[in-house]
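2024-03-11 09:14:02 INFO receiving multi-entity request
2024-03-11 09:14:02 INFO entity count = two
2024-03-11 09:14:03 INFO echoing inputs for audit
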Amino acid sequence: MIDQTDTALRSLLNDVLGLGTARAAALTADSGLFGALPELDSMAVAGLLTEIEDRFDVVIEDDEVDGEMLGTYGKLLAFIHAKRGAA
Amino acid sequence: MPATWPCPGPSGLADEYAVLFDRARPLRLLIVPPLFEEMNRTRRMLVETQRLLDGFGVDSMLPDLPGCNESPQAFAAQSLGSWRDAMAAAARHFAATHVLAVRGGALVFPTSLPGWVLEPLKGAAILRQLLRARVLFAKEAGREENSGDLLEHGRNHGLELAGYRLSAALVAGLDAALHEDEGQRVIRLSDLGGSALWLRSEPGEDPVQSAALARLIAGEAAT
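2024-03-11 09:21:47 INFO inference complete, emitting structure
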């Protein structure tokens, strides 16, 4: 079964970071995000989180956001899965 | 080509800048740009759309919002009201027949004109993103800030967010604003294809997306 959250998150990262479809598709759970991608500064992270809320219909509190949750693609995906599961 | 237009401001008329494709044709499109960083991110895409509209026989003008881009006015003096007045003045000055409002531009465009709104969003969503960027930036610097407290302070005293000095009126206005709707048609990104250039941290361009937007507007404006 295709994980729609995974597909939508790749598409969102492509929008925010301009990765291109090929690089977005090549992201693995261990791919580094915050701290690894220079494009991902605090303004870009803010945009990313706001779009995540909008596209996945979740609410993210300020204190949930840290380097851990944004550290890798896998961590961010797991965070969204957990949020959606809790909704 | 660049041109200037007289814009009302707190200290009288100011010469504001606009990108113009004007051959005095009957269809004249005013483009109201997004707010804040999204304005810079979409600029190339919008000017490319203008160039293509020119080829389809549609005149267009992309004015600066006062306090933004090349504007001689102070950003800190602006509010949604001043931007609405400015865009209404630009519509009159350029004798616009149609309007395209993009993203946050949907909060301030002249609603008396028929036209289109591209992926509009609420003022609160714009504000939330700016507040979040500030809170994240503070966190990285080892300071604790809180969106709720910042918003409360901003509504009363104004606030510096992402390098912009927002007046108290702008903060309060954004917090409450829904996008204007007088029957203008909402265009979604899925109608155009491609990715959301206004989200991109480095400004990009998408000729296919610009072409789709220009074709859609030229086609619908002519009917």
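2024-03-11 09:21:48 INFO post-check: The CA atoms of residues 14 and 28 of chain A lie 14 Å apart.
2024-03-11 09:21:48 INFO post-check: The radius of gyration of chain A is 12 Å.
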